[in-house]
Amino acid sequence: MNTECSSLELQLADYLAGVPSAEVDAHLDVCEQCRASVALWSNMAAMPAPVAPRMRLQLPKPRNYWPLALAASALLAAGLGFYGGRASAPANDIASLRKEVRSLREVVALSLLDQQSASERLRGIRYSASVDASDPELAEALSHTLRADPSVDVRLAAADALRRFPQSTKSRESMWQILNADDSPLVQIAVIDLLSEDPRLPQLLNNSNIHPSVKEYVQAVLANPQKRGFQ
Amino acid sequence: MTAVREGDTHALGTLFDRHHAALYRYFYRMSGSASASEDLTQDVFLRLLKKGETWNPAMKFTSWMYRIAHNTFIDRSRKLKWETEMPAQHEFAAPSGHSLERDEEHALLHKALLRLAPDKRELLILSRFQGLRYEQIGELLGIETNTVKVRVFRALGQLREAYAALSRDPILLAMEAKR
Ligand SMILES: [Zn+2]
Question: Which residues of A touch B132 (CB under 8 A)?
Fold first, then answer.
């Protein structure tokens, strides 16, 4: 590899990833080695993919089930007072085991929220219902979805899912920002429902981002705080 | 209480359905061994079960999953030296409009990949076959994106050399035979 090749390594790597570069094109005209490397890279794309055999998730029993089984039986025993005076030590183990169980569900919900297709993200939101509502990471992810998802359906579902999460001051602030930014009346109403106890609600009547029909809704909520949602 | 267990297995099943084929392909290309790849793929899901709490959602889920796959592969490599012991088998999808010449070329390329040091091979597999962006590879390996770029291009150069050496092999052999 000559010095020109080394000085172009970053651009050459970007070029492989599809970033066009006149500089790289000019280099490839004169450098046989780099040209051969780029050709090999294209050739790799045509390589057939290994075929995965039919596989099923195998959790060897009982060895790999033991943490869950232990958590289950320990929780049951603790609930029935089996451990008596010794309850504190196992309780710590139980707490950490429960955390593992919760975390895996969280992993699934969050990984689904990170998908390309709106229907997958909706699935992630539905899945989030099986996760402990005290989970701040998940509340944050749902709140991010509500703030930034391009699909109105997904944003509405996220707002709905957030109902069961306790609202922190921070999350309330984030809701207010959404009301100033989201231009879907449906999403605005869903967010107002999440904020219905907030004393600043009347300010929305002067907010130019709020759709006129939504302002009527705000007035109705202010007149009768019990009456929420479409009725 | 069985609900806890079933719910959890179900959660893992969701991840398995979504990602096992990609992980299998990753391991197959890393090891060249079909049976090892199946084992390793199953292993990753057990580790996901055990290490769910170590995921920081600031990291893309797939980056984290490949980090676990990477560690699984390294741990297993320490126990088994399959790079030399396990021959490459050709359990690949038949490409459309394939010719014998093309097949041989690809088989040779596969062999050349297996000749590279595992870290070089992995960079090419992740960037070329698993569809990971350089940023993601940096994230999962804990290195700078620019370092990834430089290393990928250098690994590609090494692959080109290994491939060229292998392509020359049959000619050299034929010449030897004539003497
Ligand atoms: Zn060059």
Answer: none
CA of A96 to the centre of ligand 1 (A): 54
Burial B99-112 (b: 16+ CB within 10 A, else e): eeeeeebbbbbbbb
- Domain around A17: 3-44
Q: Does the beta-carbon distance from A107 to B160 stay under 8 Å?
A: no
Q: Is it the case that residue A63 has pLDDT exceeding 50?
A: no
Q: Write the CB contacts of B1 (distance below 8 Å, at least 6 apart in sequence).
A: A72, A73, A75, A76
Domain range for B106: 98-179
What distance in Å separates the CA atoms of residue B178 and residue B157, rounded to the nearest whole number? 32
Residue B127 pLDDT > 90, yes or no?
Answer: yes
Domain termination site, one of B83, B114, B138: B83
Q: How many domains in chain A?
A: 1
Q: Which tokens hold the place of A147?
A: 């703030």
Out of A16, A47, A52, the one facing B20 most closely (by C-beta) is A52
- The overall average pLDDT reported for chain A is 76
- For residue A28, report the distance from its CA to the centre of ligand 1, in Å: 7
Pick the more confident residue, B32 or A66. B32
Evaluate whether residue B133 is within a structural domain.
Answer: yes
Strands, E assignment, B48-118: none
Whole-structure pTM value: 0.60
In a domain? residue B168: yes
Query: CATH code at B13?
Result: 1.10.1740.10
Report whether A166 contacts A175 (CB < 8 A).
no
CATH number at residue B146: 1.10.10.10
Query: Chain B residues with CB inside 8 Å of A64's CB?
Result: 46, 49
Determine contact, residues B159/B124, Cβ cutoff 8 Å.
yes
